[in-house]
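agent> fetching stored inputs for the NAP docking request
agent> found them:
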Amino acid sequence: MSNLQDQVVIITGASSGIGEETAKELSSKGAKLVLAARREERLKDLADQVNQGGGQAVYKTTDVTSYEEMEHLAEFAIEEFGQIDAIVNNAGLMPLSYLNKQKVKEWDQMIDVNIKGVLYGISAVLPHMRERKQGHIINVSSVAGHVVFPGSAVYSGTKFAVRAITDGLRMEESAESKIRATIISPGAVSTELTSTITDEDVKGGVEDLYEEAIKPDSIARTIRYALEEPGEVAINEIVVRPTNQSM
Ligand SMILES: NC(=O)c1ccc[n+]([C@@H]2O[C@H](COP(=O)([O-])OP(=O)(O)OC[C@H]3O[C@@H](n4cnc5c(N)ncnc54)[C@H](OP(=O)(O)O)[C@@H]3O)[C@@H](O)[C@H]2O)c1
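agent> prediction call returned; pasting tokens
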């Protein structure tokens, strides 16, 4: 039997791409899922699919930029399933642009979703996990959290931050409360992520990179692997690129 059997996992950004595939993968191993994102119809369809396939999933429309909504999400998970074993802070967006385009609103959005959303996710589950002295927090960073390229300054800034925050969390909590912390850093993955790019000068290069993008189910399996290891094993960081992506 999988270690994931009956584990309660919150997934943010579950309405598409990596989050959606992660839900399907974890459900196939018996996890009980709490799905979160803003698009209700997508969440409902996914939850129906999981439940009709013999799994267990509930959903709550949640904007990760709202601290209150993230707290309500954690409360909802406990009401529905009695506990939270893990959270996958996956919601994110990537409106890449050159700094001189001054797309300040997009910078704000990235900082709010990619950094604050992850922090709010951590805060929402931390007291519960500390009390139980167990839990697993998986934060989705990026290869762009390891390297910067022209057009990725702000996005990379948010994803470097995710790595810093996750490593800080690991140091603070691993010995103290036995909470595991994992960074997942994907390379180019074929999802809706590039649809948020409005800077035409960046789009071309990104389209070239994404021609060889891998499918999101590879990232879902990576997340499943980290979660499935026994409690005394912490998979702290994994980078997953298309084989021929050099950067
Ligand atoms: N695809 C790649 O190449 C790649 C590479 C490296 C890292 N990543 C990271 O992987 C994660 C998932 O992205 P993806 O590739 O699966 O892209 P995606 O298909 O665009 O999914 C993004 C998810 O984030 C959710 N989201 C966005 N803003 C939100 C908000 N304010 N509140 C709640 N949910 C929000 C979206 O749901 P709603 O719109 O319904 O709210 C959606 O479910 C992101 O953190 C991304 O940075 C992706």
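agent> quick read of the result: Residues 12-13, 15-19, 37-39, 42, 62-65, 90-94, 113, 140, 142, 186, 188-189, 191-193, 216 surround NAP (CB under 6 Å).
agent> awaiting further instructions
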